[in-house]
Amino acid sequence: MNIIIIEDEKPSARLLQRKIEKLGFQVNTLLHSVEEAINWFKNNTHPDLIFLDIQLSDGLSFEIFDSVAIKSAIIFTTAYDEYALRAFKLNSIDYLLKPIDEDDLEVAVNKFKARQPKPESVPFDIEMIKKMLVSPEVKTYKKRFTIKTGQHLKVINIEEVECFYSENKGTYLHTFDNRDYLLEGTLEQLEVELDPKDFFRVSRKFIVPMKGIKDIVVYSNSRLKVILPTYKEDEVIVSRERVNDFKTWIA
Predict the structure, then answer these.
(1) Chain CA centroid to CA 178, Å
(2) What three-state secondary structure class fits 182?
(3) Listed residue (238, 201, 188, 191) closest to 218, CA to CA
(4) What is the residue-wise DSSP string for 2-25?
(5) Can you tell me the distance from the alpha carbon of 227 to that of 217, in angstroms, rounded to the nearest whole number?
(6) CA-closest candidate to residue 209, choices 224, 225, 226
(7) Positive or negative CA dihedral for 144, 148, 151, 156?
(8) Burial of 74 (0-12, 13-18, 19+ CB in 10 A)
(9) Cis (ω within 30 of 0) for the bond into 117?
(10) For residue 132, which of 238, 245, 214, 54 has the smallest C-alpha distance?
(11) What's the pTM value of the predicted model, to 2 decimals?
(12) Which residues lie across from 161 on neighbouring strands?
């Protein structure tokens, strides 16, 4: 079996080589950078198995696949946490978290040996793994509302919102200066557009911001009443089924 290691830290590469050879397999080549790997793959027969570090000294190892079509099976060796790498098992043999445990290494190699069909007949989806490794997309939340008032458009920043509420099948925004504006959409739609760290759906009728809470009062039937600075039209009650989540949110 032809095995190569691609690892930018030479001591780590040699240590992994010794561990692999301890299992009775021969490591033929050690490569230490994207550039070196690309040149090697262009001029040599591709191996059966690659032990591949993700972060190399001159870039991500995925750049190798952008330049060379590689059909070898791959076992990742990486410092990335397990959560980010769950999907690797779908398209690669395995992954090993550094520092590499010898028992885990043996399991990974045995998995490669037992794999059917043969690795070269199974397409390696490098694009999927790229997507899994990039930093998760940071979700953006609503920062402002553009509201039509007569012939004018008014922009209200999220910091000006004291609460959102529904009334007579309409959805309204109430500001700290005690004004109400009709919005398009529903509270359900708003709920997913607002940052959950800053806003909480206390009931079917109200969404309140953390900064808008003036006081919290124990109410009947194990519920809570939220006092807002200016909104006085109706009582803002945390429904019984949301009380525990609300307490966690404000903690």
Answers:
(1) 39
(2) strand
(3) 238
(4) -EEEE-SSHHHHHHHHHHHHHTT-
(5) 8
(6) 226
(7) negative
(8) buried
(9) yes
(10) 54
(11) 0.48
(12) 175
Phi–psi pair at 71, nearest 5 degrees: -110, 5
End-to-end alpha carbon distance in the chain: 57
Token couple for 85: 């790498």
Pairing of strands 49-53, 3-6: parallel
Q: Find tokens 């909104």 and name the residue.
A: 231
Tokens describing residue 33: 């950078």
> Which two three-digit tokens encode residue 4?
């190569």
For 88-110, b where at least 16 C-beta lie within 10 A, e where not — what string?
Answer: beebbbbbbeeebeeeebeebbe
Distance between CA 64 and CA 230 in Å, rounded? Answer: 61
Give dist(CA 200, CA 87) in Å, integer.
33
- CA dist 145 and 157 (Å) reads 6
Give the integer Cα–Cα distance in Å for 103 and 179: 66
Q: Tell me: the pLDDT tens digits for 68-121?
A: 888 788 888 877 654 345 435 434 677 787 788 898 899 988 888 887 454 444
Residue with tokens 């199974």: 122
> Taking a C-beta distance cutoff of 8 angstroms, is the pair 4, 27 a contact?
yes
* HSE, side-chain direction, 13 A CA sphere, residue 30: 14
The β-bridge relationship of strands 27-31 and 3-6 is parallel
| Strands 215-218 and 224-227, sheet pairing | antiparallel
- For 122-139, the pLDDT digits (tens) are 455 566 666 655 555 556
CA 159 vs. chain centroid, Å, equals 27
